[in-house]
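INFO batch 0412 | record 1 of 1 | parsing
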Amino acid sequence: MYNIRMNKKEEHLLKKIDEVAKAFEDLTGNNDAFNYNRLGEVQTAILLGLKWNAGFDSKDATDLKGNPIELKSTTQARIQGTYNGLAAKETEEEFIEYMNIKYPSNTRHIFVRKDNGTIAEAWEVNNEIVLDIVIGKVLKNWYTDGLYDTKGRGDPRPGANVCMTEIKKHGEEIELHR
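INFO prediction complete | emitting tokens
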């Protein structure tokens, strides 16, 4: 394959990565487990009893009632969720409309913190509250002429974080069955 010298641990890791990629494709039909953290989203959906989504449409999973689920995860010490890569719109009003279409009122937002590959804690925050937080933060970076200020970021699209304080203030902790 490649003319690279590897030690036994590196060979073992690469073999396991190949096995995981194949198992993911067998389960989902999707051949890129590591693109956009799809593997992590499917793992989270399974662990929370949700129906995972192997595609790349606007929902990460659905609940038993068919409601869309937006999953956010971190491996940091403090739970948080990042909403990056949102569509850049010409006006604030168009951005707000886009967000309400992207995350309809029945959307559930679940934030998880993972530790060593498994869920350490999980919280759910109401859609309206998440939209208020994200839209509010994005609009703070809007210039009066209607353009979004990227503040030197590599990705020019709008984005915002929902921090631990906001999650724990407005959310409800999900009981994890271990």
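INFO post-check: The two ends are 41 Å apart (CA to CA).
INFO record closed
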